[in-house]
Amino acid sequence: MGIHVSTKINGDDVEFVCDAEETLLDVLRDRLNLTGAKEGCATGDCGACSVTIDGRLTCSCLTLGAEVEGREIGTVEGVAKGNELHPIQQKILDNAALQCGVCTPGIVVAAKALLEKKPDPSEEEIRYWMAGNLCRCTGYDKIIRAIQDAAAEMRG
Amino acid sequence: MASSTGEAPESKGTHQYQPRDFKVVGTTPLRPDGVDKVTGRARFGADMNLPGQLVGKVLRSPHPHAKLVSIDTSEAEALPGVKAVVTRDDFAENEAHHDILCNIMARDKVLYEGHAVAAVAATSRAIALKALKKIKVVYDILPHVTDVDEAMKADAPILHDDMFTHGVDPMPTTASNIAGRCEFGHGDVDAGFEQADIIIERNFKTAATHQGYIEPHACVATVTSDDYGELWGCTQGHFVLRNVSASLVGMDVSKLRVTASEIGGGFGGKTTVFLEPVCLMLAKKSGKPVKMAMTRDEVFKASGPTASSSMDVKIGCTKDGRITAGFAEVRYQGGAFRGAPADFGAMCAFACYALENVKAIGWEVVTNRPKGAAYRAPGAPMSVYAVESVVDELAKAIDMDPIDFRLKNAARNGDKSSYGPKFESLGLVETLEAAKNHPNYQIPLGPNQGRGVASGFWFNFGGETCSTLNVNQDGTVAISVGTPDIGGSRASMCQMAAEELGIPYDQVRAIVTDTSSLGFNDTTEGSRVTFSSGMAVIFAAREIIGKLCERAAMMWDIPVEAVKWEEGKAIPAGANAGDFEPLTLAEIADAAGGTGGPIAGHHEYNADGAGVSFGTHLVDTEVDPETGFVKILRYTVIQDAGKAIHPSYVEGQFQGGAVQGIGWALNEEYIYGDDGKLQNAGFLDYRLPVASDLPMIDTVIVEVPNPGHPYGVRGVGETGIVPPLAAIANSVSDAANLRMTELPMSPPRILKAIHQAEAAE
Amino acid sequence: MVQVVLSGIMKTAVDDQAEIEIEAKNIKQLLDALARDYPKMEPYVKKGLAVSINGVIYRDSLYQKIPEDAEIFVIPRLAGG
Predict the structure, then answer these.
(1) Per-residue pLDDT tens digits for B169-220
(2) Domain span holding position A106
(3) Which of B98, B386, B669, C27 has the most neighbouring CB atoms within 10 Å?
(4) Interface pTM, i.e. ipTM
(5) Which of B168, B375, B609 sits opposite C81 (nearest CB)?
């Protein structure tokens, strides 16, 4: 028996029908074709599926699709304004802070959430905030630098 | 630069290096696939969907070792929504790929927990999972073995009754779990030990670790009624995937087209097939497209980790620090089938040293664990960990600086390698000297802090390769390569083409083509892509330059010999050639329709001559004596890249390899219970390093040109994971004043070692 | 004739000889001769090997020429991550 859900994704009104056991990640990927969020573990350990719900950073694999009725969801697809990249996206590119790029959508969403909360984080604060986003390629060095650069640019 | 003639050197693989001033190579432009990857648009293995696709799921064995008595799929097939079920009965015997066949779908026995037994394609995931529960499998449970030393014992449960040890003469007549024995070395180690003033001998153990790519294996396949198939998926080698999958499914290779999606990490783990032949078989049987993706639990239980090891190392040296003999015996288990990289382990163990007397023996063993796959410098990190630990201890014992000790014994040009061939050109000494001069080597250490050094080696290789360059009508250039881009190689390809053609980087764009658009290419593995595909791009660009000069000669009505290519333009070769305005690539491309049609370059070859790769790592750690927790304070990777095409991505390879090594040294391990089942098949309990575990990873790119590449390029991907295990073990030993001989050095193990040391005092 | 050293798992297949002499002008002739003269080598040749000629390792180029006085090592076919 499908559940009808009305929500807002990246500023747009969206309606979908999902099964009770479907996660928000399943809904985004399989029903709405928003495949930016990735399934790396489905247990909330890797952060590749990071989204925001009402501005709060969340693993979409740990949230049921049916839970987001009336909520506001932000995904990686909504981070750039049209073709204008968000500073965190640009700085990830500038710093070569990706190799395979599969964790990158989660990194973008998580880093943006951090900088909205804390415009001038220390390296340690960045590292602890990002500890929920696994990256196996880069050793995190360039990702941390990209976030520091983006923070500096956003502070102006 | 001098004009290029478009001729590839006659002898491939030797002495092609030519010094030059680079314009694009060595810079750090943005990668062509970057915007798609930061915006979520890039399509990875699980991001592709086909209309009307089914969902495929695999039933896996709960037992580590059992006879597969019977499989009854009738109830599953009867479930509404189920469109196909496959088992061993659907796959014919296959001599060429026997082990892969047995691994992707168990035949007479299941050999590890997680071994595939059946698969279902259904209209939804929920129905597919429900169907799996309705498959009735009768197992006859057998005793199991998961430890390498246990598996080698005479009374161990035997996995394969037709496994007789290779490399032992005469070959044993009774079956065992020992797949093979190999031996490398030269000189007389016994005589060498006689000359030693000090000899240290130790045993080491390392746990199996997983490549840990964040993207689980995934693919989508379709097979039409006339037996043509298409498959999209994440793989390091779509040509090899095509060959193996077509063979296992019983299709003509030419009838299967494989497209490599963006790939979310591989590190060797995506060089083989797991789901793909099963997915094709389900698609064939159902007549519908089928999509499959592993869960993380399946990735851990059923895709390839690296080997676990048990090793003995004995090294002797004189009081002034000259190694007189080195001996290593390494035992690697690589899961349920042949292929544990004991040979590479034995070959790499002493590769950093010029030794008169050296012997390394490797034992390749099977156990009831998932079939191992390559993992970054397969086999090297473990044996090098053991050797470099003993080297460190020797240096300490004679009170010599560990870098000086290594410099005194380091392999240099012309030295005979420990695995046989002479080294032709190598940068080990340069990395050691850079380490010694690095500011991180001088920083004073505090209480409970220690410093460790280790070096490491990987062979590097080339392989079958081809690339095509097409000149677009607007004068830009499209590159087609057949090697999946796993860490930014498309950017490097564009740089090399731009360098040769003399045009800006942004005028060139590279894509990875499908298996029908280029000839066979070996897999993205062994640090070969920037070297091999890159060299093919360089030669293809030179072919294009030859053609551009021909077109210019035609337009100017002068002989082609009177035209040369300089800085992206055709110009008269000299005063006698005539007075003509230079023709840019764009102008020649624009006129191509009237001068002979489209312009393209192609190069195909066996890319031999990959230069060997060495690195040296420095690490400072602090060991908490209360908890046994190890904090990495500073980490420095120094490695010879030959020539760094895109230095940022070279640094990225160094940093990524080092951090995988940190995980291997400190946290990561496959933990088996007495029941033979994996106890930590998830990222919560199998803990990869996270951002808060680490400091910045400093890097130094050393450039000792590879004589076998026009720019001097060496592969850089693998070596970075070789030194960290030993470097960290040496650092921890220095910090806690004890010798750790088992990996990972998790807090309980370190605490135990500290308590034992205290009790001994 | 070229002097060939076999190491690793293959040493026992040539009766533990440290070095053997083989008449071969290229890698293919070398491998064919090995399989012919030392039947125990056949499975290894079939599986694929790498040959080092004067320090340069060839994995695929079967027709690579072998100079008269070359130093030849036959080693396992390399694979990687």
Answers:
(1) 889 999 999 999 999 999 999 999 999 999 999 999 999 999 999 999 999 9
(2) 87-155
(3) B386
(4) 0.98
(5) B375
